[in-house]
Design brief:
By secondary structure, the chain is an alpha/beta fold. The chain has 13 helices and 17 strands. The longest helix is centred in the middle third of the chain and has 15 residues.
């Protein structure tokens, strides 16, 4: 598709583009298009699209003075070029332009419009006051290879139960591993949606993916696990995250989903003399959603346990907080093996702090048993061997 110089132009970021691609790929069904003002009001009132759950209107309202001026000037039936990263992304035939309230939209997504909330602040910066709807065509549509891979694996195995997990694995720790194993135990095929956020407050996607692949390839039946990258746009944030996750997983062919009990979007509440969660609000989506146990390390049990089965209380339990484990790694500290597998720690440290040591070979042969052989070693090798020294007991 080529752009006509006569067409007016709208500029969007990669985050908006990724969501528009999801819709065109059928991965946000029942949503199939951008919504107009009337349909948006219905969704706000009912949280339904064609009788199926969808928590808020699907709209396009990019920020920026130039975008605002262009949107104000558009007429029904006009052709609009949409650019992303200075390249033509899509062409849209204008149906309607209407006003929105950015503050109200953030409330529907996050449950608050408090600018102190990091998600609210980031989303407000990206939202304009005018939304546009109309049929759009992607300039360079791509076949989703992951859908194809899942279908082939399902047919090859005769899989009836396909489960899903959504995780950042930032970094992949022991509780993640236990959740993956627990989910795999009860299914034929497991799809792990590995999130790709739009900020720099995380390990890179490549590091997290390689860590997860190491665990799968070495410690799991790898033919039963597929990793699917999922660009983690703002629509997956807030208290509706689990509903959007379920919609995406269902459209990828999954019929089960596991959610950690400490998931921020679970949103437990009390209604009609019983405990409820956001899961109880899911309508019309064929998805069995299981709330998994919260895992901790107990210094009395001396192993990884679920909170519900350990009798020793919080003062004996170590929780798995990804942000704290990541902080140790960013400081160059090897986390204990009870928190994260040592091979993964070594790999991540070698990537986070490359060329850290002035003379690696000297350190290696001065501090570690070398067997008398002169060999080249990587920083990852050094971390792995160094970790073993922490596990000696005769002098401790």
């Amino acid at each position: 598709m080529t752009s006509s110089r006569k067409n007016k132009t709208l500029f969007i970021d990669k985050e908006a583009a990724s969501v528009l691609e999801l819709v065109k790929g059928g991965l946000l069904y029942p949503v199939t298009k951008l919504m107009g003002e009337a349909e948006s009001k219905v969704v706000l009132e009912t949280s339904l699209v064609d009788g199926k759950s969808f928590p808020f209107p699907f709209i396009l309202a990019p920020s920026g003075k130039m975008n605002h001026q262009v949107l104000k000037s558009l007429h029904k039936g006009e052709t609009l070029d949409i650019f992303c990263n200075n390249e033509l992304f899509a062409t849209l035939i204008v149906d309607e332009v209407f006003e929105i309230n950015p503050s109200e939209r953030t409330k529907h997504i996050y449950g608050t419009d408090d600018l102190g909330h990091p998600g609210v602040m980031n989303t407000i910066k990206r939202l304009g006051k005018l939304a546009i709807c109309g049929e759009y065509i992607l300039a360079d549509p791509k076949e989703n290879e992951n859908i194809k891979a899942i279908k082939e694996a399902k047919e090859l195995m005769g899989a009836k139960h396909i489960s899903s997990l959504f995780m950042a694995a930032n970094p992949l720790h022991r509780a993640h591993e236990r959740l993956i194993r627990e989910t795999l135990d009860a299914t034929d095929l497991l799809i792990i949606f590995l999130l790709k956020p739009y900020n720099n407050q995380n390990l890179s996607y490549d590091i997290r993916k390689e860590s997860l692949e190491f665990f799968i390839n070495n410690y799991l039946p790898k033919n039963r696990v597929i990793i699917v990258p999922l660009e983690n746009s703002y629509i997956f944030a807030g208290y509706n995250e689990i509903i959007i996750d379920a919609i995406v997983a269902s459209n990828y062919g999954c019929n089960r989903m596991s959610v950690g009990r400490n998931h921020a979007g679970l949103g437990m509440f009390y209604d009609c003399n019983s405990n409820k969660s956001i899961i109880d609000k899911v309508v019309g989506i064929d998805m069995e959603i299981k709330i998994s146990s919260e895992y901790v390390y107990c210094d009395k049990c001396r192993t990884l346990v679920s909170k519900s089965s350990c009798p020793h209380g919080q003062h004996h339990q170590i929780s798995y907080h990804s942000d704290s484990i990541l902080e140790l790694l960013e400081l160059g500290i090897l986390p204990p093996a009870v928190l994260i597998r040592k091979e993964i720690s070594a790999f991540i440290l070698s990537k986070l702090i490359p060329n850290r040591f002035k003379n690696l070979e000297k350190l290696y042969y001065h501090l570690l048993p070398a067997g008398g052989l002169l060999e080249e070693h990587t920083e990852k090798d050094f971390y792995l061997e160094f970790m073993k020294m922490y596990q000696t007991t005769s002098l401790t």
